[in-house]
Amino acid sequence: MKCDIILAGVGGQGILSIATILGAAALRENLHLKQAEVHGMSQRGGDVMSCLRLSSDPIASDLIPTGKADLIVALEPMEALRHIGWLSPAGRVVTSTVPFVNIPTYPDTARILDTLGKLPNVTAFDMEQVAKEKATLRASNMVLLGAASPYIDLSPEKSKPAYRPSSGPRVKRWWRQTSPRSAQAGRPPSRSDTTRQPPSQTYNRKRFYPDTYDTRFN
Fold first, then answer.
1. What is the H or E stretch that residue 74 is in?
2. Which stretches within the chain are classed as H helix?
3. Can you tell me the mean pLDDT for 135-145?
């Protein structure tokens, strides 16, 4: 098993929380992992990027070479586009379509989505709408993690204990109540957790969440 993942977003969106959960789930499956983070101006709306490498064999470097990432998980569309150079030809992008406009020169959102839509393997949807319908807006990152889960070879059952942060009791209780539910909302309802099939045979977001599906994406 080998999966190189680029996690990208804006400070405060929960990118590092996703990395922590995936890392904990990988350890529960006795996988090797390495992680590298670029925080940037994370506390002021700057970009945040994390390289997460999972493998059944030892990993030499924590950095993903250009053009070698199997998956890009982006909580913001421009950040997905910013890191396209890391994606392998057969890789997939899972991204939110909701922009985080934090600069006056932010590009036109329609142009960003049109460019992403030209990629061969893209899953793009309004993660915030799904989060508000199923749990709370604060769980948007968990919805996106659920949407990316079919493309990461980790057992959902073994991943559940990873949704427990090392925070106070109120935060722990909130995470236990909202995070797994939100991840399930993003995950394809028809996907069998016991029968592993290619994602193309099991995942059709347009069918399950038509209001959040962007017709520019497959």
1. strand 69-74
2. 15-28, 77-82, 109-117, 127-134, 140-148, 156-159, 169-186, 199-202, 205-208
3. 83
Task: Output the average pLDDT for the chain.
Answer: 76
Q: Per-residue pLDDT tens for 117-133?
A: 999 999 999 988 888 88
Take residue 161 and report the two structure tokens written for it: 């204990």
How many CB atoms are closer than 10 A to CB 201? 9
Q: Check residue 20 and give its pLDDT.
A: 85
> Residue 160: which of 141, 174, 144, 181 has the closest Cα?
181
Q: Letter for the amino acid at 143?
A: V
Cβ 99 vs Cβ 111: under 8 Å: no
Tokens at residue 133, please?
């319908």
Dihedral of the alpha carbons of 102, 104, 110, 113, in degrees to the nearest 10: -40
Looking at 144-193, which runs of residues are DSSP E strands? none
On whether the CB atoms of residues 54 and 31 are closer than 8 A, the answer is yes
Rounded-to-integer distance, Cα 2 and Cα 173, Å: 33
Q: Where does residue 169 rank: exposed (0-12), middle (13-18), buried (19+ CB within 10 A)? A: exposed
Q: What is the pLDDT of residues 23-70, one digit of tens each?
A: 888 888 889 999 887 766 555 667 888 899 999 999 998 899 999 999
